[in-house]
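User: Could you check the structure of this?
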Amino acid sequence: MTKPPDRDTGPIRAISMKTPDERPAPVEPNKTPALVRPKLRKLSEITPIVKPVHQDLGNLAPPYDPNAARMRTMQDYIIWGCVAVILACAITLIIWFVAR
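Assistant: Sure, the predicted structure tokens are below.
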């Protein structure tokens, strides 16, 4: 196997078929765009100072009671367990009557 000769063809040029005659203007690297600085103001200048009025909203939700939560969870388990046993009994009876 022979090694292909090294060719130095220079930089790769890309030619656009949309605008073949126009070339982009060179960018001046020393110029940066001027940025507009934001003006900082106090919040009191924008909104008037008004003391908040206390509004009684009542009890939106009762405080969390872990004992009640445990009781609800246990009741859910018991109810779903009963539903599963009733469903299993119904399926067993259906199969028993059909097989007879």
